[in-house]
Batch of 2 targets.
Target 1
Amino acid sequence: MWKQLCCCCCLLFCQLLLAALVCSKDHGNPANDLVNMINNNRTAHKLTKLNDSPGLGCMALQFVEFCKGNCTSDNTVNCKPSEDDFTEIFAPNCGVELPTFGTITGRIVGCRSKYLEPSLAFSNVLVPDKRTLSVLSNKSHSEVGVGMVGVHKGPFFWCVLFSSGRTNSTFVLENHGLGIKQKKGCYSGSSIPCSVGHKSAVSPSNFLLLSFLVYQLQQVYPNLFFFPM
Ligand SMILES: *[C@@H]1O[C@H](CO)[C@@H](O)[C@H](O)[C@H]1NC(C)=O
Ligand SMILES: *[C@@H]1O[C@H](CO)[C@@H](O)[C@H](O)[C@H]1NC(C)=O
Ligand SMILES: *[C@@H]1O[C@H](CO)[C@@H](O)[C@H](O)[C@H]1NC(C)=O
Ligand SMILES: *[C@@H]1O[C@H](CO)[C@@H](O)[C@H](O)[C@H]1NC(C)=O
């Protein structure tokens, strides 16, 4: 009897641990996954790892937000914001402190008719050829930011911005690094999980795990979830 109970407790503990692990994993922001993929690709080619700059990421989000209407039928973003758009629209929208605006040393922009998982977005949209790989591999970069946004029932947009600045002193976000809260899309370096349109906070796998946990709890404590009317 005791042995059985102990075993149950152990099982329950393991389940809880697993749930905690799943919940604590950074699953809310695919822009961060893309930064990791960019860095893994660079380090595999013996290049330096780039610092993840939230200010730059937010600017990348502004870029795609600005170009949202212009995904052509061959999946290219036909849109060329000016330098002034960066300083007069993108930076203020993010709350990037203007004196800290750094040098942008490269950018990659892409779109698809629908959202793609980070690994597919990396290989099919952002770095599909030699030209984009050479942008990613440029030795001038020291920091990176990724922004992404989708149009409801329309195309999805990705943007990577590279800069030669130092993470602490360029593209600094006001309000102690929080910047201005964004209504749409998401960007790397932000602790705010993003909604890419079809993902909810409780992912299907987490929901399954949660249901399983409740089920197990019910097995151990049959009366726990019994609410008399
Ligand atoms: C999008 O494309 C249209 C037509 O080519 C162009 O007039 C417009 O300026 C573009 N938008 C941006 C933000 O570049
Ligand atoms: C790397 O980036 C710098 C700054 O944007 C640029 O001047 C240079 O041409 C790039 N180098 C290569 C190999 O693309
Ligand atoms: C880096 O990315 C390019 C473009 O997707 C790919 O062809 C290459 O195999 C990648 N390199 C490594 C080491 O993963
Ligand atoms: C940023 O600056 C703070 C203090 O100025 C320092 O402690 C921290 O190590 C710096 N971080 C990076 C990534 O340079």
Note: The longest strand covers residues 104-112.
Target 2
Amino acid sequence: MRNKSEIRNPKSETRRAAGHRLVRIFGFGLLSGFRGRAGLLLALAFTAAAAAGCRRDMFQQPYSKPLESSDFFQDNHMASRPLVQHTVARGHLEADEVFYTGKIGTNLVETFPFPVTREVLERGRERFDIYCSPCHGRTGEGNGMIVQRGFPPPPSYHIDRLRQAPVGHFFDVMTQGYGIMYSYAARVEPADRWAIAAYIRALQQSRDATLAEVPAEQRAKLEAKK
Ligand code: HEC
């Protein structure tokens, strides 16, 4: 068993020592530099305030960052442990194949793993505008700002092939990447990937919905505008 002072981070030790020294030098400098009572009081107040910050044992506890090198474990010389073989980290079971891959076996799914509500679509729009619109454009036409500045253009979401693609395809493209488009798995949570897929469906729908598909109350409004 190591005692506390051995495992204390040497860096913070030296920083602490340097801090003490500074306080002493400044305190002394101020004490000798200020004349009169007001000056003395000011100098004392400063020294007290600065010295109060010195004992910070509970604030600066010894700790290691996960990938930092460390001699504590002799097998991998890192502060963190490798995952134990044949185990699954808590929260990473990912047993729901459809939800995490958009597929059943090798077949892309045609339906969403949860009901698509207005909230889901709004979340999807927000995430789409953040992560996808720079290339795909806000309307999914493939003319986002990065493309306008020279990035290879992605296909429009409104081409027949993508309109007929099963929704699992969109989830899969975000999860795995596609061609020169890299994966968004690390940046967009699975539930958000589904929300984005739902919003892409809404974008596609917005291009060829018929008046008959508009709910009756809104249809009246549209017709009044004509
Ligand atoms: C940095 C630019 C960029 C961003 C950001 C981007 N994409 Fe793409 N995307 C592309 C390019 C380029 C292609 C064409 C890739 C190819 O065919 O090699 C593409 C292709 C696609 C396709 C069509 C795949 C097919 O079957 O042809 C889909 C769907 C897609 N992206 C969805 C998304 C979604 C959803 C997001 C946001 C999470 C996103 N992309 C973010 C550049 C981007």
Note: Residues 71 and 77 are 5 Å apart (CA to CA).
